[in-house]
């Protein structure tokens, strides 16, 4: 059996989708949670100096979406045809685009500029993207694509707290009940439920 | 045979990888180049109000990277295993991250801020990413991943002029001969060569 290690901070954020996809696939893996103290030294050994990283038999792979897609294909969560896989990728990218806009505003160091960006996004970017996601989920039986559970649902559900923090929308799932329905469908999987209940609590709150 | 239409502006930028992947696969497709005058009306019919869009038998798909990956899988350019596909996705995302940093600076409307962002990127972001890409290409026999021609090479080669414009580095391939080698390897494919020689000239210069 290959040795698998997953490296990330003790946070859900961009790492939890891979952890829960590994749990869904009943894969044995070392859940390596790197502390902020360890990070400068660990960073040197990471392919692009970033995490999350999935290590399979000594080879390290980076990029959170690439990892989630890989695990999705491995565990039958990537559609039944090339066209379904494309639809999943497309809708996952819509989510990523939204998150990246929010991240870009959140990590702006100039406070005045940060407030300006966030205000612009609240007006022009977030409502349209959230409405689109809501429509998509309603059209896909409570899922992000292909009318069924896919790896993109794991990305949505497991990084939802991070998204809410970045968007500064703590009651997002109350505004969009379809989002709550999607999240519940991911955590309803027995092995996912077991893993998430026994896993360490995020230090960051998301 | 399915009817395939590819919608984009008369530019290479984010659209040309898909056009040349379609050409590589010898697919018949309508190369629909939307003018700026037509765009407001056409925009309404696009899944996320954006292009590029690939339409297959009446169903439209957006997101440039998702489309390129789909065509890569369809035409044998997506690796021979799930792990190779992961490596291709990972390295394509490294390129996308670099491009997105540059795009974010390029389209900043505040001129002062734009200059500041570009200067910061020139110091902190671009050199490291470009060095990493150079190392990767050298390690992969002149390709972006998996040691052979993949769809990620098409993304690199066909949007290279756009990348240079965003980075404001007109002599990028002189600085990195490995980039030139990769680009040449994509255009060396006979059907790609035929298509690119007869296709309309981009209105935007990239």
What does this 3D model show about the protein?
Two copies of one chain form a homodimer. By secondary structure, chain A is of the alpha+beta class. Chain A is 57% helix and 9% strand. Chain A has eleven helices and four strands, in the order E-H-E-H-E-E-H-H-H-H-H-H-H-H-H. Chain A has helices at residues 16-24, 39-43, 64-74, 82-106, 111-124, 126-139, 151-158, 160-167, 172-175, 177-187, 190-198, and strands spanning 4-9, 30-34, 53-56, 59-62. Chain A has a four-stranded mixed β-sheet, with helices on one face. In chain A, helix 1 (16-24) links the parallel strand 1 and strand 2 (30-34). In chain A, helix 1 (16-24) packs parallel to helix 3, helix 4 (82-106) packs antiparallel against helix 5 and helix 7 packs across helix 10. The longest helix of chain A is centred in the middle third of the chain and has 25 residues, at 82-106. The two termini of chain A are 32 Å apart. The model of chain A has no long low-confidence stretch (mean pLDDT 96). Chains A and B meet through strand 4, helix 3 and helix 4 of A and strand 4, helix 3 and helix 4 of B.
Approximate helicity band of chain A:
55-70%
Structural class of chain A: alpha+beta
Number of strands of chain A: 4
How do the strands line up in the largest sheet of chain A?
2-1-3-4
**Oligomer status:** homodimer
Q: Which geometry of chain A do the CA atoms define?
A: globular
- Which chains have the largest interface? A-B, 27 and 27 residues
Beta-strand percentage range of chain A: 5-15%
Q: What count of helical segments of chain A does DSSP give? A: 11
Q: Give helix and strand order of chain A, one letter per element, not per position.
A: EHEHEEHHHHHHHHH
Q: Kindly state the mean pLDDT of chain A as a whole number? A: 96
Radius of gyration of chain A: 17 Å
Low-confidence stretches of chain A: none
């Amino acid at each position: 059996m290959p040795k698998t290690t997953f490296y990330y901070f003790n946070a859900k954020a961009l790492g939890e989708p891979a952890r829960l996809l590994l749990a869904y696939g009943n894969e044995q893996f070392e859940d390596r949670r790197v502390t902020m103290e360890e990070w400068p030294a660990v960073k040197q050994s990471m392919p692009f100096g970033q995490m999350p990283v999935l290590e399979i038999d000594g080879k390290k792979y980076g990029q959170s979406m690439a990892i989630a897609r890989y695990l999705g294909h491995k565990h039958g969560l990537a559609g039944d045809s090339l066209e379904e896989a494309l639809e999943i990728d497309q809708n996952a990218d819509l989510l990523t685009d939204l998150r990246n806009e929010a991240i870009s505003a959140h990590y702006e160091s100039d406070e005045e500029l940060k407030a300006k960006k966030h205000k612009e996004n609240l007006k022009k970017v977030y409502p349209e993207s959230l409405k689109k996601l809501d429509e998509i989920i309603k059209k896909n039986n409570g899922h992000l694509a292909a009318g069924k559970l896919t790896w993109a649902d794991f990305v949505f559900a497991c990084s939802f707290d991070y998204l809410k923090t970045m968007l500064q929308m703590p009651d997002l799932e109350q505004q969009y009940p379809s989002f709550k329905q999607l999240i519940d469908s991911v955590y309803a999987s027995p092995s996912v439920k077991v893993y998430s209940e026994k896993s360490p609590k995020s230090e960051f709150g998301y």
